[in-house]
Design goal:
Distance between the termini: 53 Å
Helix content: 25-40%
Number of strands: 28
Largest sheet: 7 strands, mixed
Structural class: alpha/beta
Shape: globular
Strand content: 15-25%
Radius of gyration: 25 Å
Length: 554
């Protein structure tokens, strides 16, 4: 079968010994030190779908079934755990809502490890922790591959709102099944069962079987249980705003070193890097890794150490006039922190072309992932940009589309792109590079159907019937929310400077406000590379410890 998530090419369930490992008596004995053994009666619910902070169960005797609901609302058994096997998947290490239900099949006994003790078990017993974490990851990958235990999205795949919803769900690693009403013969019956009309499309069928018609992302995140609720009275040691590589690195290192850490992210983990189809020059991944996979692993690491995360929550203001600092979110929540890391990154600039806004979401894209590649399979596309992201996009798309037309304003790619990508692009028969060129026209009715560009030196125009335009130029920092608190450069990036060495928390990533730091693409003068962002995010934690020590925290 084909994967419901095209980023996962092999069925994770094929690795059954790792997905459902069986623990021996020696390991069970050690696990008992972190929980208690108790009876489980036939039919007893151990946890329900939608629960948060559920306990972890190891079967000692009997059987425990893991269930989801099918389209008709009936229970469907995904797996039955036998003696020595355990419940749970990735939501077990976060505070997101669970995707499945656990129910005892017959009378038996289980070891219950309370939610708060699971992280202690995994860190204190690393061999057991490795088995558990690998199983959790593979189980979630299995859900994604098969589209199990998630939501159904009904709508035209070329519709901008369908793409908006699908991109959000996929990038947050939530199981998804898509249904195209025009192509899927089962769509009519599904729409009739749930009372979905054509006027309500795109529609999301939520886990509780309610229908959300073209929902805004914050509402969707809440209904899916993606956002972890915060206590308004809590003061965090560290709040990281932005979950790109730099932000996730800061959160992982901060939480692993004992800091209570929260991350606020407007869309999904990974930032701009999360949209890269393959990153090949990141240390430790000789065959490359997709930005989404890298971000997913980093998020799991951060959550394993206790990081809490709020998804689809934009920070709109930073109050640094008093301490603790206060980050105000778009839903009027206020998150207070002793230290703040600004890691909100940057976004691609738009082109100044007539009708540009009309085609955003209807042929204009800012990412080249499996979702976009599927939309333009076999068709000609245009990629604008000369950086690594544009090069990675061109190479990835060339394996799926008819032809890639790549436009750059300069003489070529050598000055702005890694050499390995430059050489591959020049050698590819499916990519044509057009230097000194810029887009001057777009055409189409509801969807983009043609692109025109002009060679600036000669004035020659070229038109192609392209159905997708990938724009990956420039960098506009996401700093509107800090402009009343922190100094910015002319382009809007956060200014940092190394203070005197005897200043508590001294760091080249410190802003003019002690206790507030900026890392990654959002920082003025930073190197716009994934590895550089990860390095900045990890290094800044040492300065945060020094700053917190002056407050009597450390």
């Amino acid at each position: 079968m084909s994967s419901a998530d095209p980023m996962i090419t092999d069925d994770p369930y094929a690795r059954s010994a790792q997905v459902y490992p069986r623990l021996g008596d020696e390991m069970l004995g050690r696990i008992r030190n972190y929980g208690e053994e108790e009876a489980a009666a036939a039919g007893q619910i151990l946890f329900r779908r939608g629960d948060r902070r559920a306990d972890f169960f190891v079967v000692v005797e009997g059987e425990v079934a893991i269930l989801r609901q099918d389209d008709a609302g009936a229970d469907e058994t995904l797996v039955v755990h036998q003696a020595g096997q355990f419940t749970g998947e990735l939501d077990q290490v976060s505070e997101r809502a669970l995707l499945v239900e656990a129910r005892a099949v017959r009378d038996g006994r289980v070891i219950r490890v309370h939610h708060n003790d699971l992280s202690r078990l995994m860190s204190s017993e690393p061999d057991i922790g490795e088995l558990i974490m690998r199983a959790f990851i593979l189980r979630r990958m299995g859900f994604l591959y098969h589209g199990q235990a998630g939501v159904v999205l009904i709508g035209d795949p070329n519709d901008g709102d369908v793409q908006r919803l699908q991109r959000f769900i996929v990038r947050n690693s939530y199981p998804l099944r898509t249904v195209d009403p025009a192509a899927d013969p089962a769509a009519a019956d599904l729409m009739r069962v749930f009372g979905v009309t054509a006027e309500a499309l795109p529609a999301v069928i939520a886990p509780d079987r309610t229908v959300l018609s073209n929902p805004p992302l914050p509402l969707l995140a809440d209904r899916l249980g993606l956002t972890e609720p915060f206590d308004p009275d809590q003061v965090w040691d560290l709040v990281v705003v932005g979950a790109g590589p730099a932000g996730l690195a800061a959160a992982t290192y901060g939480a692993s070193e004992g800091l209570s850490t929260a991350v606020i992210e407007v869309l999904a983990p990974g930032g701009q890097a999360g949209t890269s189809s393959k990153i090949e020059n990141y240390l430790g991944f000789p065959t490359g890794i997709s930005g989404q996979a890298l971000a997913g692993r980093a998020l799991v690491q951060a959550q394993k150490f206790g990081t809490r995360m709020a998804v689809s929550r934009a920070a709109v203001a930073l109050d640094c006039a008093a301490h603790p600092f206060a980050v105000r979110l778009e839903d009027d929540q206020v998150v207070r922190a002793r230290a703040v890391v600004v890691a909100t990154g940057a976004r691609y600039r738009k082109l100044d072309v007539p009708d540009y806004d009309r085609f955003e979401g209807h042929g204009i894209h800012y990412a080249a992932t499996a979702m976009e590649a599927k939309l333009c399979s076999g068709l000609d596309v245009v990629v604008v940009g000369g950086g690594n992201s544009a090069g990675q996009a061109a190479m990835y798309l060339s394996r799926h589309v008819g032809h890639v037309h790549m436009l750059v304003r300069g003489e070529g790619l050598a000055a702005t792109m890694s050499d390995y990508l430059v050489q591959r692009i020049h050698r590819s028969p499916r990519i044509t590079l057009y230097p000194h060129s810029e887009v001057t026209g777009l055409e189409g009715e509801r969807l983009l159907s043609g692109v025109t560009w002009t060679e600036r030196r000669t004035g020659k125009t070229t038109h192609v019937p392209a159905h997708a335009l990938f724009v990956m130029i420039g960098a506009r920092p996401n700093t509107d929310w800090v402009e009343d608190c922190l100094p910015l450069d002319e382009a809007g990036f956060v200014l940092t400077a190394m203070p005197a060495e005897d200043t508590p928390g001294a760091s080249p990533y410190q802003t003019k406000r002690p206790g507030i730091y900026a890392v990654g693409d959002v920082r003025a003068g930073s190197v716009k590379r994934v590895a550089a962002g990860v390095g900045e995010g990890s290094v800044v934690v040492q300065a945060i410890h020094a700053w917190l020590a002056t407050l009597g925290r450390d």
